[in-house]
Specification:
Layout: E1 18-19, E2 25-26, H1 32-37, H2 39-45, H3 48-69, E3 73-74, E4 80-81, E5 92-96, E6 101-105, H4 110-118, E7 123-131, E8 143-152, H5 156-175, E9 179-182, E10 185-188, E11 194-197, H6 198-206, H7 215-224, H8 235-246, E12 255-261, E13 277-285, E14 288-295, H9 300-315, H10 326-333, E15 339-345, H11 346-353, H12 379-384, H13 392-397, H14 403-407, H15 412-425, H16 435-443
Parallel strand pairs: 3-7, 11-12
Antiparallel strand pairs: 1-2, 4-6, 5-6, 7-8, 8-15, 9-10, 12-13, 13-14, 14-15
Helix pairs in contact: 3-5, 3-11, 7-8, 9-10
Length: about 450
């Protein structure tokens, strides 16, 4: 060796786990909050984490290859929008200084993709980052990824067949099999998938036929089924709450739920043969929705009326009601061909395909609450108690970051043993404190 060249400074030691002769692992970097906040460390010391994100990319590439082979065009549409639409959700709001106007982070890209169908494209799709200003959970992140696809001269029955085929290909690409282990469940994506209409599903799982009920009867049914509702909910939302409470969690194998009430689907075409319903389906798997699809509404007069109904729900306090988009209506007035539309949640599908229990496990950098800053006493504060300067980092490592915390230590023997053990672990080359020395810190 002739030369050593320093390429990078590492000021923090990696939290590498240790394994003893019996195979027991110590000091593993497993705390979920630390892993999500410091994903860069997680990826280094837990190499199996990388596998999830490699599979996520393979999942998206498989879908992209499948759609490209069919001749559909991958496009990009605006993230900042003057009006939010395409879904029932609360948006994030921002301000454009130069134009002095309010803009919204998109909650969906649906209305822009439909404009491209009006413009003459046969099929368009987009992998999009969407944003919804709603609650966070192990299934929801305010920033999420979905793919939306729109194909002219097709309907929702055709789209169901496409979804089955595409998702089956994803499972085969990732696992070499249509069967995927998800927790304790063995889920099989082999075609064909089970199908229920929404009314059939509710009748099947609750024993109640709601197909002819009005809003007042639905409210009474919700009460009898112990489904929480409020005055802002219209007929569609009430049905959705019943389905979400009593049906969705019980659908483990991939299942299509079809033919939704018109009140639940402001952008879907009315059913060709069933009054009061629309041509819509959702795919449910492992108790959660993984995709949503319509025969798209292309009648501008009907669409305007649906938007007006949404405005009325907004007046009743529904903060997820859609707004009226005049430019989108103008596009429809030029004529949009019959179109099938689809949205698939990439994060949710990745959770299932990678057997991950939370959405945070499939996002490199999930949204987190602000990190709490730990109160920290100064070195001078410890010295005033008679603590040697070399032992201050030992106390801090043990969690005694304030003098108040140290004073609350009521077991002298435990504190003494902890300090001696941590000093050795941290390889600090100074003598251990005496028990009398430790006792003096607490009595000072």
């Amino acid at each position: 060796m002739k030369e050593i060249l320093l390429l990078s400074k590492a000021l923090r030691p990696l939290p590498l786990p240790k394994t003893d002769k019996e195979g027991h692992v110590y000091d593993a970097f497993t705390d979920p909050e630390q892993r999500y906040r410091q994903r860069y460390v997680d990826l280094v010391v837990n190499p199996q984490v990388k596998d999830t994100f490699i599979k996520r990319t393979q999942l998206m590439n498989t879908m992209r290859e499948y759609l490209n082979e069919k001749g559909y065009l991958e496009v990009e549409t605006p993230i900042l929008q003057p009006l939010y639409g395409g879904a029932a959700a609360r948006p994030f709001k921002t301000h454009h200084n130069t134009l002095d106007m309010t803009l919204y982070l998109r909650i969906a890209n649906e209305l822009y993709l439909k404009r491209l169908i009006v413009g003459g494209f046969e099929g368009v799709y987009e992998f999009s980052k969407d944003f919804r200003n709603e609650g966070m959970s192990r299934f929801h992140n305010p920033e999420f990824t979905q793919i939306e696809l729109y194909v002219a001269y097709k309907d929702y029955e055709w789209m169901m067949n496409l979804v089955e085929e595409m998702v089956e290909k994803v499972a085969l690409r990732l696992h070499g099999s249509t069967q995927v282990q998800v927790g304790e469940q063995r889920i099989d994506f082999k075609r064909p998938w089970q199908r229920f209409t929404m009314m059939e599903a509710i009748a099947h799982f609750t024993g109640v036929d709601i197909s002819e009920m009005d809003e007042a009867q639905l409210r009474a049914t919700c009460r009898s089924l112990q489904v929480a509702v409020d005055d802002s909910m219209g007929k569609g939302k009430l049905i959705d709450e019943i389905f979400g409470e009593h049906c969705e969690p019980k659908l483990i194998q991939p299942t299509f739920i079809t033919d939704y009430p018109v009140e639940m689907s402001p952008l879907a075409k009315k059913h060709r043969s069933k009054l009061g319903l629309v041509e819509r389906f959702e795919a449910i798997c492992n108790g959660k929705e993984i995709c949503n699809s319509f025969s798209e509404l292309n009648d501008p007069i009907d669409q305007r009326a649906r938007f007006q109904e949404q405005l009325e729900l907004g007046k009743r306090g529904d903060d997820e009601a859609m707004v009226l988009d005049e430019d989108f209506l103008r596009a429809l007035e030029y004529g949009m061909p019959p179109t099938a539309g689809l949205g698939i949640g990439i994060d949710r599908l990745t959770m299932i395909m990678c057997n991950q229990p939370t959405i945070q496990e499939v996002l490199f950098f999930p949204q987190m609450r602000p990190e709490k800053k730990t109160e920290m006493a100064s070195e001078a504060d410890y010295l005033a108690l008679g603590v040697r300067a070399e032992l201050v980092p030992v106390l801090q490592k043990l969690g005694y970051t304030t003098i108040e915390a140290l004073k609350k230590a009521d077991n002298i023997n435990k504190l003494f043993n902890d300090v001696c053990g941590m000093r050795k672990k941290m390889k600090i080359e100074v003598p251990n404190p005496t028990k009398e020395e430790v006792e003096s810190w607490l009595s000072a």
